[in-house]
Amino acid sequence: MKSVIIYYSYTGKTRELAEKTARDIDADLIEVKEKRNRSTFNAYVCGSLAARRQKKTEIKEVTFDLSEYEKVIVAVPIWAGFPSTPFNNILELLPEGKEIELILTSGSGNSKGSKEKTISLAKQKNIKVIKYTDVKTTK
Ligand SMILES: Cc1cc2nc3c(=O)[nH]c(=O)nc-3n(C[C@H](O)[C@H](O)[C@H](O)COP(=O)(O)O)c2cc1C
Asked: What is the pLDDT of residue 113?
């Protein structure tokens, strides 16, 4: 069964996890990158606000054909209790009705509420979340 992991990472932790998971399950990797280089201040202030408002961001062009994959995993960090803004771009790149597995990485904050919000965002775009994994990246 061929799998793909579509991910966004700001500080590298989700990338590290995506790369490790890809090695473990022999999946292809697709990285979604923002056009801008955000400063930490911008990420926490503007990025968090945009994530809370479920806004998209400007991403570098990325094209993929998911028809060859049976399993699609999407991995993104949590920002301010919501999936980081590129998640909203990724949802739009997925074909309607697609089933996905989600990996959300987060720090020491409470991420319980994020699950419901993330699944609800996917549902609004007619994307079915068949598995949700919450990964704490702090030790
Ligand atoms: C702008 C911003 C907002 C964040 N908000 C939260 C949060 O609400 N809850 C939490 O547990 N961690 C939060 N974090 C921590 C990240 O979710 C966590 O470190 C994540 O694994 C980072 O992934 P990355 O290195 O791939 O960007 C935030 C980090 C950033 C940069």
From this structure: 87
Extract the tokens encoding 83.
Answer: 């999936």
- Does residue 9 have its Cβ closer than 6 Å to ligand 1? yes
- What are the distances in angstroms from CA 7 to CA 1, 17, 41, 124? 19, 10, 22, 20
Q: Pick the atom of ligand 1 nearest to 76's CA.
A: 26
Does residue 85 line the site of ligand 1, with CB under 6 A?
no
The closest alpha carbon to 133, from 83, 65, 61, 80, belongs to: 83
In 3D, which of 89, 116, 128 has the Cα closest to residue 6? 89
Looking at ligand 1, which residue's alpha carbon is closest to its atom 27? 10
CATH for the 3-136 domain, from 3.40.50.360, 1.10.260.100, 2.10.110.10, 3.40.50.10170: 3.40.50.360
Regions in the chain scoring below 70 on pLDDT: none
Q: Which atom of ligand 1 is nearest to the CA of 43?
A: 1
